[in-house]
Amino acid sequence: MIAYKGDILYAPTPDRFTVIENGYVLVGDDGKVVATGGSLEALLEATSRGDSDGVDVADQSCTTDETDSITIVDRTGSLIIPGFNDLHVHAPQYPQAGLGFDYELLPWLEKYTFPTEAKYADIDIADHWYRRFITHMWQVGTLRFSAFATLHNEATLRLMQLCQESGLKPLIGKVNMDRNSPNYLVEDTDDSLSSTEQLIQQSRKLTPDIGFIITPRFVPSTTPELMVGLGELAQRYDVPVQSHLDENRNEIDWVRELHPDIPTYTEVYEQYGLMPNNRTIMAHCIWLTDRERAILKDHGVWLAHCPQSNMNLTSGIMPVRRNLDYGLKVSIASDIAAGHEPNMNRHIVTAIEASKMKTFETGYEHDRPLSLSEAFHMATKVGGSFFGKVGSFEPGYDFDALVIAEDESLLELSPEERLERFIYAGSSRDIAERYVSGRLIDKPFA
Amino acid sequence: MIAYKGDILYAPTPDRFTVIENGYVLVGDDGKVVATGGSLEALLEATSRGDSDGVDVADQSCTTDETDSITIVDRTGSLIIPGFNDLHVHAPQYPQAGLGFDYELLPWLEKYTFPTEAKYADIDIADHWYRRFITHMWQVGTLRFSAFATLHNEATLRLMQLCQESGLKPLIGKVNMDRNSPNYLVEDTDDSLSSTEQLIQQSRKLTPDIGFIITPRFVPSTTPELMVGLGELAQRYDVPVQSHLDENRNEIDWVRELHPDIPTYTEVYEQYGLMPNNRTIMAHCIWLTDRERAILKDHGVWLAHCPQSNMNLTSGIMPVRRNLDYGLKVSIASDIAAGHEPNMNRHIVTAIEASKMKTFETGYEHDRPLSLSEAFHMATKVGGSFFGKVGSFEPGYDFDALVIAEDESLLELSPEERLERFIYAGSSRDIAERYVSGRLIDKPFA
Fold it and tell me: Is residue B445 domain-resident?
């Protein structure tokens, strides 16, 4: 077992942080949290071992003693927090980050996104830019994410292999699109289905730590046949599903034109079998009706709230408070490259800022702003829960963690205040170490 | 003369960029732009010299030939853009950046700002943190700014001296506050006035490139006697004025209680002589009435729009489109530390994002979002115009410039797109060089 010593801070519930100043996270050999506490002796007793004689103080070291003893990884003075989990990101769009924000969604896709994604037909380009993408996610402390790739099988498998090599544990989906797409970036329906099935099978052999996720681009670019086929694959292989929902008002009108017999955008996915219970992520969900909220809640769908993207593409502001009050699961996501930066700390900030702006539209009583602990909880534990027990330091959770070695301070700060400073004004340079399932992860690629 | 060669990009008007790909900015020995153009010969002819024989190609060098010849500083492949100008920043608050944003303005001041500013009574603390502040401003390419210091004369003079040493050319104001302030951070009215006058005189001798600006904190913390005295100093010494206006609705109510006989917050400053024509900056101006707009326009006041700060402290969203349509001068500012980062590229982004969010509140016809060129114009030329001919590359403007050496790109990008990418996703690491009035400025402090 390893005991990580430092100022421990996590958010098991949205309403407040759990803080253990100068405390410990005890992690088992399986990389899962055994317990947290302020006294190592008490921790060991509580975990029914009581063998604190074996305590082995290995200052600044990470080696695990092979015996029954405890290795202490001493990070006194640093914050130890859960890693970030980003439930919506487009890996191939990474090189277009920061382009085209005088446009809204549909023209932006035509002008920047489709030409960028088309280039991933070239495996060398894909390899180069996917390495840069993964390294950047590592730098900013996003240890798990759910990514759209492109429609290209070879490039998507390469992304999964590079992720496997990196030690990060994302979900990756090959994008499916067989209608209303440019002729240089569109699939035949049957080919789309068979190549998806092939990738599921290949990745199970080749990339055991990287899950596959079924990824229809969005309703306008997938035919009913394709949606039905993908739903069947999701069921047959027990894999999750991700897509986009209710992002832009023109997009919603388009879906209504394409499916005039289905009452809402949400129900298109539902009817075609693309909303497996407790296995689905829907990005954006800005313009939900209450009817749609009920369906999303019923299926246990994760909403990936992408406030930076929604501002950039003038899509709208999600009424996050009302969705939370309704009992929906709302995580925070970067949506690279409609979001222009991967840093989840800044997306926490933007989610808070967007919730404050919403307050000015509708009043405090309808849209009370998010607090820091709520937004942090969304970016760690809510997003993490899509991967299992991830995003907290409660017993049984994977030890996915960041060690934050902060800058000097003029004021004396509490751990919560130090976290707030890192979230708002810190950078990846403040992240000293990253652990995934208890394993220290080095910089993946040069 | 020096000819800077590269992809020249600036925004003399809000509606579009002026772009000269692979062109030149010709700069005189006085550090002012002589002309810009695509051909050096044509430029020289146009400037009535015609002596292109003397052209001296000094690749990657910055030395100026002492003769009549032209030195070419070759930055081919890089963008050359005007430096950023930030009309509202609190230099001493730099170390508190990122703290306290679950609070609104007035409790945030009490809990974080006043305790921070009080520490600048210690000159060693002031020296340490002011060096860090100036270096950070240099890093992010903010070459001119208008800063609030604290009420302490010694620390404020030190800030001015460090700025003089750095080569940056800001305006600095000692803060005045003689009421409704904590007992550890409040002045006697006469002392406040005499120490302000003393600083004006000292700085004229000691820091010739750093202007002094009269800086009453805001109406609630300055008595009428102090305001009147400061207005007289502004007139006597012909120095500009800066303060806060219409930021937070509780603050506005407070001003109304303090001055029940004066119809608006704006008129308090006007009546007490703190709105010298074309010499005044007012920060925030979120909740202006049309009556106040008319007064601000009449006095030629610069509005410092601080969208990040306004989001962080839940102050509101300035209706920037309506203020622009009214003919007001609106610049973009960081408001460190209610804004959490000094980077003006990100404040350009936030101003655009805020304007998009405003659109959702009131509709496109009232609050059309800012375009990139508009926001860039505000952060360069509008802010720069407070300092004279600064913020553009039109003839006669000070050559305040940034050389942006960008990262590789997957897509082929125009200069405007490369600028957009830098604004949204770039960082200070992309800024290769900074020039103020034609002088290359090195990193000020280690």
Answer: no
